[in-house]
Design brief:
Strand order of the largest sheet: 2-1-3-4-5
Number of helices: 6
Order of helices and strands: HEHEHHHEEEH
Strand content: 15-25%
Radius of gyration: 15 Å
Helix content: 40-55%
Shape: globular
Oligomer: single chain
Structural class: alpha/beta
């Protein structure tokens, strides 16, 4: 599931974070740790990857990331609000400079009205910056949805590391 293109993207993320002195964390639900796995498949990644949270259950989202249980009950685990709270919780709990979150419906079951199979929400958080969110509906089977979600999460991390450079007072 983690191919050469994914490893090249993960390498770019690590290099961009190193250049900014950023440690990162992942908060994953439907990807089950694939984002962290792609990053840690690269030798030497421990100088950037602080930790990965696999918060598949609602209880884990609340306990490990501090996502308010009423938010999950009101908006659903697969929502933009929960994705943002997951990323923000990862930054707060891991004390890192960058975190990405992924929550979605990989299928084949689990769809509800307004939330089809393939729907994935992402959050990208940095201390002192507005949390960025993305939503996609990916096509394909469970493996395809998870792989596409992993790639987009890596792309978001790369963008976040690059944005940190732009926001830095020392950025040239």
């Amino acid at each position: 599931m983690i191919g050469d293109t994914d490893l090249a993207l993960a390498t770019q993320v690590l290099e961009a974070c190193r250049a900014q002195g950023l440690m990162l964390a992942t908060a994953e639900s439907c990807t089950g740790g694939l984002v962290a796995a792609a990053l840690t498949a690269i030798a030497g990644s421990s100088d950037v990857v602080e930790r990965g949270f696999v918060t598949y259950s609602n209880a884990a989202k609340a306990e490990l990331l501090g996502v308010p249980a009423p938010l999950i009950a009101d908006k659903g685990a697969v929502s933009v609000e929960v994705a943002a709270a997951m990323a923000e919780g990862a930054v707060a709990r891991a004390r890192v400079g960058l975190a990405v979150s992924v929550t979605g419906i990989a299928g084949p079951g689990g769809a509800t009205p307004g939330k089809p199979v393939g729907l994935v929400h992402f959050g990208l958080a940095r201390p002192g910056a507005a949390t960025r969110t993305e939503q996609r509906v990916f096509a394909g089977d469970r493996a395809a949805v998870r792989a596409q979600a992993m790639r987009l999460a890596l792309e978001l991390l790369l963008a976040g590391a690059q944005a940190a450079k732009t926001a830095s007072p020392n950025a040239g």
